[in-house]
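Board work, copied verbatim: Sugar lactone lactonase YvrE
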Amino acid sequence: MNSLPAQLLAGGFSWPECPRWHAGRFHFSDMYNHRVVALDAAGRPETVADLSERDGLDGAEVVPAGSGHLPDGRLLVVSMFEKVVLVVTEGADGKAEVYADLRDLAAGPVNDMVVTASGRAYVTQLGFDLWAREQPAPSPLLIVESGGAARVATGTEHLMGANGIALTEDGRTLVTAEAFANRLTAFDVGTDGELSGGRVFADIGDLPDGMCLDAEGAAWTALPVTGRAIRVADGGQVLAEVTVPRSEAGSSTACVLGGDDRRTLFLACGVEVFDFQRSRDGAQGSIWQARVQVPGGGTRP
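↓ predict structure ↓
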């Protein structure tokens, strides 16, 4: 197995999650600071979407998670505890509006998201309130059509804490990380967006968090308990790993392939996930990067 050390790109964040590479730019959710942040090659931050002034539905705190772009360039952002997908006008003064209301479909906080080339989105949910120390429970993926109509993805009701989520370049296979089953699970994607043929992509033996795919069909997934990311083939063989210094980086939360050639693995890391204010005050969240051999190609995110 090829082991690669990661280098620090930037720090000073709360709990970083859901890194993305889109249109030549890297960005991620600085969750408890209520914003989506982009970094340039030197690690200098720019706020892409500031949600700190939004009044959350039902009194919920606005915590951004998964994001993606519609074909017309508009930014979609999952608001975890509101249980909605927002469409955001980018920039520090950007306005956020509800694009898809998932409150009647989601059992607990909604989480990550991947958006297809046509604008259909697949949203993961934990199925229970992790922050309230509830016990894990199965829950399905949610499908949001272009325009905002949402439904449950039939045949995914058994998923145990679907977390990171990604699509192959051809859009025909979807893979999600079942955090509380310690595995990656794959589905075939139909022309109507429905999912079928659910199967185990890889048994991890460790809790997987955010993930991405590469051009050879292997998956990179962050393992927060052990503070690293692994590259695993369909079938379960571990091919490579990227490591970070645990004492400095804490837990690895999510990863994505980016850079001009999509051969840079960006790895989000955090120290405090449960106490929002402590996470903000500590500002120990960070982004790390490592060069890898196989690019992301046209995979999403």
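The radius of gyration is 17 Å.
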